[in-house]
Amino acid sequence: MTRIYFNEVVTRDGFQSEPAFIPTDAKVALIDELSDCGYAKVEVTSFTSPRAIPMLRDADDVMQRIRRVPGVEYTVLVPNLRGAERALAARADELNLVMSTSETHNLANLRMPRETSFDGLKAVIDRVAGQVPVNVSLSTCFGCPMEGEVPQQEVLRWAVRFAELGVRGLTICDTTGMAHPAQVARMCEALQRRFGDLQLTLHFHNTRGMGLANVLAAVQQGVTRFDGSLGGLGGCPYAPGATGNICSEDAIHMLDAMGYDTGMDLDRLLAVARRLPEIVGHAVPGQLAKAGRIAELHPAPAHLREACA
C-alpha cells in the first residue's frame, strides 16, 4: 500500500493564533515528543517579527533547544531575507515561504500585492540556493473568503513561477476551508501532471467539515504528503470563522484504518494529543483523542453480561 507522509504544523500554524503565550519549555518538550512519532517534517516555528506574532517570539531559542531526530526535517516559516538569515543561523532543515494566490487575501495577510511578495520570496530563494531546501506554500488555492473561488489556472500559474526558481516543494493550501472533494481531485490531477518531480503537499482546514474528505480525495489522486495540526489547532485570522487545520491524529487514523502506510506511531501520537488541552488551556477540536481508535472496544453493559450468564 502507498506510503503517506505527514508534516506536523501545530507549534507554528496551530499555536500562532492562541491568545495566551505558550512557554518555550512547553514548546520544546512538545516538539521533542512529536519527533518520536514518525513525522516526515515538523514545522517548528516562524522567523517573523515578534511584534507581528508574539507567540513565536522565542523562535531562536526553540530551534536551539529542540532534540533533532534523524529522519525528521525541522522546517520553519520565513517571511523575508532577515528571517532567512535567522533560519540559516538556527540550522533549519527547510525554509517554508508563503504567499497567497488571491490578491485580496495577500493584501490582507501580507500587506502587499502578490508581485511584491513574489519578488521578496525570489530574493530569499536566491539567497539560500544550494544551502537549504525551499518549500513554497500557496495560500487560498481553493477559495478566497473575499474573492470567492480562485481559478485553478491562477494557482498553476503561480506554482509554475516558483517551480522555475528551483524550489524543492510546493504546498497547496486550503487556507480557509473552502475546498470540496471534487475540486480537490481536479486540482491534484493537474498538479501531479505538471509537478510530479516536486514534493507536493496538501494543506487543508476543516472549517466546513470536509477536511478529511479532502485528504481522501487527494490520496486517491496520488498525493502522498499532507500537513496536519495536532488536535486540529489553527486558523486564518483574515477569514472570519476559519477554524483549524485538519487534525493530524484524526487523518492518520483514517488512513491507517484504510490500509495506508503512514509510518506513524499512532499510540504514541494519541498520548501526546491527549495532553494538548492542558498545554493550550482549552479543549481542542480533534475527535480521536476523545473517542479512541476504532479498534478500541468497550465492555458490554453489565445487565447484558448477567443475562448471558
Note the main attributes of this structure.
309 residues, alpha/beta, TIM Barrel, 14 helices, 40% helix, globular
Describe the protein.
This protein is an alpha/beta fold and 309 residues long. It has one domain (5-308): Alpha-Beta Barrel (TIM Barrel), CATH 3.20.20.70. Helices cover 40% and strands 14% of the residues. The chain has helices at residues 10-14, 24-34, 59-65, 81-89, 103-110, 114-128, 152-163, 181-194, 211-220, 248-257, 266-273, 276-280, 288-291, 302-308, and strands at 5-8, 41-46, 73-77, 94-100, 134-139, 169-173, 199-203, 225-228. Strands 7-6-5-4-3-2-1-8 form an eight-stranded parallel sheet. Helix 7 links the parallel strand 5 and strand 6. The model has no long low-confidence stretch (mean pLDDT 95).
- The name of the CATH topology is TIM Barrel
Sum up the overall morphology in one term.
globular
The CATH homologous superfamily is called Aldolase class I
- End-to-end C-alpha gap: 44 Å
Quantity of strands, as a count: 8
> Mind summarizing the main beta sheet?
8 strands, parallel
Oligomeric category: single chain
Q: How much is the radius of gyration in Å?
A: 19 Å
Number of helices: 14
Task: Give a short summary of the structure.
By secondary structure, the chain is an alpha/beta fold.
Give the secondary structure arrangement, pairings included.
Blueprint: E1 5-8, H1 10-14, H2 24-34, E2 41-46, H3 59-65, E3 73-77, H4 81-89, E4 94-100, H5 103-110, H6 114-128, E5 134-139, H7 152-163, E6 169-173, H8 181-194, E7 199-203, H9 211-220, E8 225-228, H10 248-257, H11 266-273, H12 276-280, H13 288-291, H14 302-308
Parallel strand pairs: 1-2, 1-8, 2-3, 3-4, 4-5, 5-6, 6-7
Helix pairs in contact: 2-3, 8-9
